[in-house]
Amino acid sequence: MPNRQEWRPWASIQLPDDLCSLSDISPETRKLWDRVGGLPQLLDPSSCFTPRPPPFEDVWIELVRGCKSHQYDVTYKGELLGDDRESEKEELYALALLHTQQPIAREACGIKVMNIWEHGLQQRMILPEGLSKVNLGGSCMFSCHITPPGTISPFHHDFGKAQLVYCFGTKHWVVIPGLDENIRHYINESVHDNVLKRFLTHQPKGAILIKHTSEKVLFLPPGTIHAVETEEGAIFIGGEFPVIECLDVMPWLIRAQLQVFETSQEILKQDLNNYTEVVKETLRLRRDCLTILALKSWLEVYPVLLSTLRRLQGKSKNDLKDWTKDLFRLWGAWTKTTEIKACPCQPGKVLDEMGAHFRKEHLRQL
């Protein structure tokens, strides 16, 4: 385990010149984050869990159950709830190190156990009021990870949703707002093995360094690009929530990935799935002011989607059509019932036949 007195986070990486901490945010950095819904926050755990934050023992129990149910060959020896907490943690770290040799561990920079919510953790994590203008509800993704000391997870975006992360251990985050210009550089460099260093050479705007322990829950706005270094080996629970602010960021992610379709299919597929979910939940609320936001986001995605379909051939084209069929079907159904008489493509103009206009101008698919 790293020596606490000698530990320097991100010692091997040249961090952005304008990097700041949450306690020392410059006005310029604050303005950049305001464009994506606001700053990251460190929250009181009592506001993010019901009825209470799970203690270390509960998380460990759920983790073991989850691992066994998914046949990751996790074995725990000794008393689970013994008095020697440090010994338990050391055994946990050793277990995590052992599993870094497994494919699933290499992919996640630690052990990654999905579907933990089957054992009750999803009933505890909630998105506090005030972090989003509208929490869309719908399905939320929860996961539980173990990361050993010294683990570095390179930059990623977790598909554009708002996130809560509760950590047992110590982690250091570099978080970057999902601005259009940041996303373009990130997507272009994400296909390279050394994405961490390559992306940072572009000096992404608005970078913040955050130290995270179990004293707080970390909130990340939708589309936050982030990398994580583990000082103390850690368990952390993550929740991803669809909120209305996703409609600001998701189009940027999808557009950037469509432009490099050949190297981003799997991530693009998941981003399109999440975008479809957010649009579906927005339209379900039947609130015109929110529907207009969904329309504006689609008008950003659609032209790039159409041009990508035109240039693709064969299987790639069919795959993209398949990934977007639910999205096209969703908008098609909306055009048959909408009472909205305005389209963002023609501000100020009244459209008595909005449905017909939208199908003709914004739903043609090759």
Total domains: 2
What low-confidence regions span 5 or more consecutive residues with pLDDT below 50?
Answer: 66-119
CATH architecture of the largest domain: Sandwich
Output the structural class.
alpha+beta
Mean pLDDT: 80
| β-sheet strand percentage | 15-25%
Name of the top-level CATH class of the largest domain: Mainly Beta
Number of strands: 9
Helical content class: 40-55%
Question: Please, what is the CATH homologous superfamily of the largest domain?
Answer: Cupin
Rg is 22 Å
Order of helices and strands: EHEHHHEEEEHHEEEHHHHH
Q: What do you see in this structure?
A:
The protein has 366 residues and is an alpha+beta fold. It folds into two domains: 20-241, Sandwich (Jelly Rolls); 247-362, no CATH class. 40% of the residues lie in helices and 17% in strands. The protein is built from eleven helices and nine strands. It is globular and about 60 Å long. Residues 66-119 have low confidence and may be disordered.
What would you say about this model in short?
This protein is α+β, with helices and mostly antiparallel strands and 366 residues long. The protein has helices spanning 27-34, 56-69, 85-99, 103-108, 180-189, 195-200, 246-258, 265-284, 288-311, 314-335, 354-362; strands spanning 20-21, 41-43, 111-114, 141-147, 152-156, 162-176, 208-212, 217-220, 225-241.
Present the secondary structure layout.
Blueprint (H helix, E strand, L loop, with lengths): L19 E2 L5 H8 L6 E3 L12 H14 L15 H15 L3 H6 L2 E4 L26 E7 L4 E5 L5 E15 L3 H10 L5 H6 L7 E5 L4 E4 L4 E17 L4 H13 L6 H20 L3 H24 L2 H22 L18 H9 L4
Parallel strand pairs: 1-7
Antiparallel strand pairs: 2-8, 3-4, 4-9, 5-9, 6-7, 6-8, 6-9
Helix pairs in contact: 5-7, 7-8, 7-9, 8-10, 10-11
Protein name: JmjC domain-containing protein
